[in-house]
Design brief:
About 40% of the residues lie in helices and about 20% in strands. It has about 475 residues and is an alpha+beta fold. It comes from Candidatus Endobugula sertula.
Length: about 475
C-alpha cells in the first residue's frame, strides 16, 4: 500500500508527489552501539527473562518438566501444580491481570514493556549483537553493504546469518519444548541410518515442522522485520495513547533547552550565538531501533527503550554540558517543572490490580486438584424401571490432577433416597483421567417428581479435603 505525500513548499503537481510505502522502511536501519544506564537496565531485565525461557523446559520437578503443556491429555503443568481444561477461567483471570498490569505500568512509565522486556525487542537486540560481532559497528556495516561482493563480505554475511540461524533454532526448539519433552524433541533432530542405509530422522515430523516454523518466524521477525513489527503489526502501539496523560513518564526532548540546535566550535559561546545544548549530532537517531527522531516530539513508534537518552547523555558528557537534554520525564514537567506521580488514574489501576491478584491467588490456593464431570450416558434410555426401581445411567469422569495417586469414592446427596448401584472406590494414578458409567437407582414409590436434582460428590479416601461436586438431573416416569 502506498500514499501520496505532496511537498508543502510547492504548488502540488504530479511531478511533486512522492510515493511512500506505508508498510516498509524506506531505508535500512543501522543502529549505533551505545553504552549507558538504560542499556544496562535492558541487560539486567532481558537476560533473566531470556534465561528463564531457555532453561525452564530443562528443569524437572517430580519427574516432569517444570512447565509443560500436554495438549494430548489436556494437562498443563506449571511447577508443582497441574491444571486441567476446567481451569480455563484461571487462564482468563491471569490474562486480565496481565492486561491491567500493562495498563498500570503504561499509565505511569509509558511503553517500558516494549523497550525493555518485549520478546520482539529482546530477540532483535540479540540479532543486532550478532551484526556487531560479525560486521562491525554502524559505519562498517554501512560500508560493507555498499561495497561489492568479495570474500570478506561473504564471510561476514555468512557468519551473521549463521548466528541468526542458531539463535532462531534454539528459540523454536525451546518454544516447542513447552509442549513436547525437549530432550525427546532434540534427539529427533539427530539423524541415523536405517536398514537400507538411508539417513532418516527419528523425531516426530509434526514437532520438527513446528520447530522449523517458529525458527523461521524468529529469523524473519528479528532479522528483517524488526521495526515493522513494532510500527505496523503490534496493536499495543496503536492504543497506547489512550493510557497516556500529561503526567505519564516517557522519553522526551527538552526543546526549551536544546533549541536552536546546531554544531559549534570548541569553547564557543554558543548561547550568545542563539544556540541551545543540542549539537545536532544525530546520535539519538542513529541508536534508535525504530528509526525515529525524538526531537520531533513524542511519536507512537517510540518504544521508550532509553537508548537515545544514553546516547545524548554521552554526548553531553563530552561537551561538558548537563545531562538530561533527552530524558524520561512528562509533559507537565517540561511545561511546569512538576510531575504528579500519584494521581487518581494510576491509583485506580493499582487498587484494581491489587484486588485481582488477591482474588487470583486465593482461588489458586483453595483450588482442589480433582475435577468431576457428569453427563448422561448417551447409550442408555432417559430412565429405566426394573423390579420396582427407577434407574438413570450417568457417565462420570474424574481427573486426578494431584502429584500422587489417590483412591476416590463417589457419593450422592439429595432429598430423596437415591443410591449408586454396585459402586466401589476407584484408584487413579497421578494425572489420570477415568471415565465410568454409574447407575443411580431409587424405589418407584419414593419418586414423586418427573425431574429431581441430585449432587455427585467425589472424595479421596486418604484425604477428605480433596473433593469435587457436580449437580445432575434424575428423570423418572411421568405417571
Amino acid at each position: 500500500m502506498t500514499a501520496k505525500i505532496p511537498d508543502p513548499d510547492k504548488n502540488t503537481s504530479d511531478s511533486d508527489i512522492r510515493y511512500v510505502n506505508l508498510y516498509e522502511s524506506e531505508n535500512k536501519i543501522y543502529t549505533r552501539k551505545i553504552k549507558g544506564f538504560y542499556q544496562s537496565i535492558r541487560r539486567y531485565t532481558g537476560i533473566p527473562l531470556l534465561l528463564g525461557f531457555l532453561l525452564m523446559p530443562w528443569l524437572v520437578i517430580d519427574g516432569r518438566p517444570a512447565v509443560f503443556f500436554d495438549l494430548s491429555t489436556r494437562q498443563f503443568n506449571i511447577l508443582w501444580i497441574t491444571f486441567g481444561p476446567r481451569d480455563g477461567i484461571l487462564l482468563a483471570g491471569l490474562l486480565i491481570i496481565s492486561a491491567f498490569a500493562l495498563f498500570t505500568v503504561t499509565a505511569f512509565l509509558g511503553r517500558v514493556w516494549c523497550g525493555f522486556t518485549c520478546p520482539q525487542t529482546v530477540w532483535t537486540l540479540m540479532f543486532i549483537w550478532a551484526e556487531h560481532v560479525c560486521e562491525g559497528d554502524r559505519n562498517k556495516r554501512i560500508k560493507l553493504d555498499q561495497s561489492d561482493w568479495n570474500i570478506e563480505k561473504v564471510l561476514r554475511k555468512s557468519g551473521k546469518y549463521s548466528l541468526w540461524l542458531i539463535i532462531s533454532f534454539i528459540t523454536g526448539a525451546t518454544f516447542i519444548g513447552y509442549f513436547l519433552p525437549i530432550r525427546e524433541l532434540l534427539s529427533g533432530f539427530i539423524p541415523s541410518f536405517n536398514d537400507n542405509g538411508l539417513l532418516v530422522f527419528d523425531g516426530s515430523l509434526t514437532a520438527m515442522f513446528w520447530t522449523v516454523f517458529f525458527a523461521s518466524v524468529t529469523f524473519l521477525n528479528a532479522g528483517f522485520m524488526r521495526e515493522q513489527v513494532c510500527k505496523y503489526m503490534c496493536p499495543y502501539a496503536r492504543f497506547q495513547s489512550a493510557m497516556y496523560d500529561s503526567d505519564t513518564l516517557a522519553v522526551h526532548y527538552d526543546k526549551v533547552r536544546g533549541e536552536a540546535r546546531g554544531p559549534r566550535k570548541t569553547n564557543e559561546d554558543y548561547k550568545a550565538a542563539g544556540k541551545g545544548d543540542c549539537i545536532d549530532c544525530s546520535w539519538c537517531v542513529q541508536v534508535c531501533p525504530v528509526d525515529i527522531d525524538i526531537r520531533e516530539g513524542l511519536q507512537y513508534e517510540c518504544i521508550n527503550c532509553g537508548l537515545c537518552v544514553d546516547a545524548c547523555n554521552s554526548v553531553m558528557d563530552k561537551m561538558n554540558y548537563p545531562r538530561g537534554l533527552i530524558r524520561f520525564t512528562s509533559d507537565d514537567e517540561l511545561q511546569t517543572g512538576k510531575t504528579h506521580y500519584f494521581r487518581l488514574r494510576v491509583l485506580g489501576y493499582i487498587v484494581a490490580l491489587f484486588v485481582m491478584i488477591i482474588l487470583f491467588a486465593s482461588t489458586v490456593a483453595n483450588r482442589q486438584p480433582v475435577t468431576l464431570d457428569i453427563s448422561r450416558d448417551r447409550g442408555a434410555h432417559l430412565f429405566r424401571v426394573r423390579s420396582g426401581q427407577v434407574q438413570n445411567v450417568y457417565r462420570v469422569k474424574i481427573h486426578n490432577m494431584d502429584r500422587q495417586s489417590h483412591e476416590y469414592r463417589i457419593k450422592l446427596s439429595s432429598d430423596l433416597p437415591f443410591e449408586i448401584v454396585k459402586h466401589r472406590p476407584i484408584l487413579l494414578d497421578e494425572g489420570e483421567i477415568f471415565s465410568i458409567p454409574v447407575r443411580v437407582s431409587i424405589p418407584k414409590d419414593k419418586l414423586n417428581l418427573v425431574k429431581s436434582n441430585i449432587t455427585f460428590t467425589v472424595t479421596a479416601t486418604d484425604d477428605e479435603t480433596m473433593s469435587a461436586q457436580e449437580s445432575a438431573t434424575f428423570i423418572g416416569p411421568s405417571e
